[in-house]
Design brief:
By secondary structure, this protein is mainly alpha-helical. It has 5 helices and 2 strands. Strands 1-2 form a two-stranded antiparallel sheet. Helix 2 packs across helix 3. The two termini are about 40 Å apart.
C-alpha cells in the first residue's frame, strides 16, 4: 500500500459517509444508533480514529445491511502474498528451488533464442 492510498480506517470512514449520504442519515442519528457522542462519530468519519466492531454492528442495523459491507473493500488494496517457491527438476540446470520470477526469467531467455522454423528441438536448450 502506498502512502497515498487509504488504509482500512479511512476506507471504512469513506464507506460509512457514502452510505450516510445515500440514506440521508446525519451524524446525530448515527451517534444515537451506536450510543456514542456526535464528536466521536465526527472524528471517526474524518478517519481520525477507528469505528470498533460494536459500532459497525450498530451501523449495519441502522443501514439495514451486513457489517462487512461497511468495510469499504472496493478501494482497499491488500499487499500481495509472497510468491511460492517452485520445486522443479530440470535438465542441465539445477532448478530444484528457485522462485517463480527467476523461472520466468530463465524461460524468457530460452524463448528469445527459440526458432519456430527449426525442424528439431535440441532438448538441451529447454
Amino acid at each position: 500500500m502506498s502512502i497515498n492510498e487509504p488504509g482500512l480506517v479511512e476506507s471504512v470512514a469513506e464507506e460509512i459517509r457514502s452510505v450516510m449520504a445515500r440514506r440521508k442519515v446525519n451524524q446525530a442519528e448515527v451517534a444515537e444508533a451506536i450510543e456514542r457522542s456526535q464528536s466521536y462519530v465526527s472524528r471517526r468519519l474524518q478517519g481520525l480514529g477507528a469505528f470498533d466492531i460494536r459500532d459497525l454492528e450498530g451501523l449495519a442495523l441502522l443501514f439495514e445491511t451486513e457489517p462487512a459491507s461497511l468495510l469499504g473493500w472496493a478501494g482497499l488494496r491488500t499487499p500481495k502474498p509472497p510468491r511460492p517457491r517452485l520445486s522443479v527438476v530440470g535438465r542441465g540446470d539445477d532448478l530444484s528451488a528457485i522462485d517463480e520470477d527467476e523461472l520466468n526469467d530463465r524461460f524468457d531467455k530460452k524463448a528469445a533464442g527459440f526458432d519456430p522454423s527449426a525442424k528439431e528441438i535440441d532438448p538441451d536448450t529447454l
